[in-house]
From TrEMBL:
The keyword Cell membrane does not apply. Residues 1-19 form the signal peptide. Residues 48-97 form the SMB domain. Its main location: secreted. One of its GO terms (molecular function) is cysteine-type peptidase activity. It comes from the Eukaryota. It is found in: Secreted. Belongs to the peptidase C1 family. SMART domains: Pept_C1 (SM00645). One of its GO terms (cellular component) is extracellular space. Keywords: Disulfide bond, Glycoprotein, Secreted, Signal. The lineage of its organism: Eukaryota, Metazoa, Chordata, Craniata, Vertebrata. It comes from Lepisosteus oculatus. This is Tubulointerstitial nephritis antigen like 1.
Length: 470
């Protein structure tokens, strides 16, 4: 019996020893919290806990960041796992090493704290300095000041939707038209027989000639699909003009982005010739039927609209509208597009006779901050490092032209063009750009198109419209 008690007693002692040893091991294996300095020197931990514990007490803990810290006297060893306020609160002495804090807007921040400065993340270092990333931002305040101080004929401004983006992201997410292939660039230009005596007016706006038939600029968001937005916009205007207002669809860029997937990259890039091929062969529905779904950068939602041929080249939808608001899933088509010459007079005559045209242009870093005036690419970044000078290909819709006198009395000619960056960019979504000088390559590749509109379509639309309003 005596032997049995001794055995049990020994076993208990061993177990307690093991348990004690396990706790110690857990604590000793824990990452030392303050080997590299206290991460939150201003936090009150032991104080909030209600005090400190004498000697060693493995239960004397407080949650700290992603782990726990201790308020017992055992924590104060060379490699410390004490709470940040242990020294001050429990021992009444300053902590062993507190790194310098960083200052910002009158506030102190401990090492490791971060804040964003436009498109760069800044981290508070142990030396008390902010270390910031060195990206070039899409909106650079000094570029805006340089443009507005210089005499460039246009004004720059800050845009909240671009603030915090890098220049690389702007080029990657806000443009999205691929330069046409060599074979498309060598497409024959349509030759016009212009009478040399024909006078074109100094000012023209498609909205004034065709009121209610020219569609307002949309916003492509961070979807790099100007290839689809400019195509849908030009086709919408042309169909409305051609049908004399019997049909005024705002065609759906999303339909083209999601369904025209043959060699196209959706929200990552695309070709206008592919978009026109799709509009002619498959056709698209309206924006109301298939609304734009501003996807996350780089993602393209799958196609939700299909059509089938119904004879004479026409097509009919075989799916309901993705939007529950609309039942009008009518398919609109175009004829093959045609290319105009780069002669400004011919482009002007085409716009005045037939409606807006599509243009491809190079967008440089300063175009993003355009606010008003006649845009020309400025040399304000020419002395900066190459990463400050970037450009990409974009497509837009030219809707008119004009001219104005500058302070020297010189006439400055311009195009009026609609962008796809929303109504609060530029002049209500539009911009003016120098005309007749191929500024940013805008006159190099100009496309016109006809809608596929028959008298029967117009009659049918007129009838439907009439019934709806009875």
């Amino acid at each position: 019996m005596h032997l049995l008690l001794m055995t049990v007693g020994l076993l208990l002692m061993v177990e307690v020893g093991i348990a004690k040893h396990q706790v110690r091991t857990r604590r000793q294996l824990n990452n030392p919290l303050h080997q590299g300095g206290i991460r939150d020197p201003y936090g009150s931990y032991c104080e909030r806990r209600g005090g400190c514990c004498p000697g060693r007490d493995d239960q004397c803990t407080v949650p700290y960041l992603d782990t726990i810290c201790y308020c017992d006297l055992f924590c104060n060893r060379t490699v410390s796992d004490c709470c940040p306020d242990f020294w001050g609160h429990c021992l009444g002495i300053p902590p062993p090493t507190i790194f310098k804090s960083c200052e910002r807007n009158g506030h102190r921040f401990h090492p490791g704290a971060t804040h964003r400065e436009n498109c760069n993340l800044c981290t508070c270092s142990r030396t008390g300095q902010w270390d910031c990333e060195q990206h070039v931002c899409l909106v650079e305040p000094d570029m805006i000041h340089a443009i507005n101080r210089g005499n460039y004929g246009w004004h720059a401004g800050n845009y909240s939707q671009f603030w915090g983006m890098t220049l690389d992201e702007g080029i990657r997410y806000r443009l999205g038209t691929q330069l046409p292939s060599r074979s498309i660039l060598s497409m024959n230009e349509l030759k016009m027989n212009m009478d040399s005596s024909e006078r074109l007016p100094p000012y023209f706006r498609a909205e004034e000639k065709w009121p209610g038939k020219i569609h307002e600029p949309l916003d492509q968001g961070n979807c790099a699909a100007s290839w689809a937005f400019s195509t849908a916009a030009v086709a919408s205007d042309r169909i409305a003009i051609q049908s004399m207002g019997h049909m005024t669809p705002q065609l759906s860029p999303q339909n083209i982005i999601s369904c025209d997937t043959r060699n196209q990259g959706g929200c990552t890039w695309g070709r206008v010739d592919g978009a026109w091929w799709f509009l002619r062969r498959k056709g698209v529905v309206t924006q109301e039927c298939y609304p734009f779904s501003a996807p996350q950068p780089g993602e393209t939602p799958h196609c939700m609209m299909h059509s089938r041929p119904v004879g004479r080249g026409k097509r009919q939808a075989t799916a309901r509208c993705p939007s529950a608001e609309s039942y009008q899933n009518e398919i609109y088509q175009s004829t093959p597009p045609y290319r105009l010459s780069s002669n400004e007079k011919e482009i002007m005559k085409e716009i005045m006779d037939n409606g807006p045209v599509q243009a491809i242009m190079e967008v440089h870093e300063d175009f993003f901050v355009y606010r008003s005036g006649i845009y020309r690419h400025t040399p304000v970044s020419s002395r900066k490092a190459p990463q400050y000078r970037k450009h990409g290909t974009h497509s837009v819709r030219i809707t008119g032209w004009g001219e104005e006198r500058d302070y020297n009395g010189q006439t400055r000619k311009y195009w009026i063009a609609a962008n796809s960056w929303g109504r609060n960019w530029g002049e209500d979504g539009y911009f003016k750009i120098a005309r007749g000088e191929n500024e940013c390559q805008i006159e190099t590749f100009i496309i016109g198109v006809w809608g596929r509109v028959t008298m029967e379509d117009m009659h049918h639309h007129h009838r439907k419209h009439h019934h709806r309003h009875e």
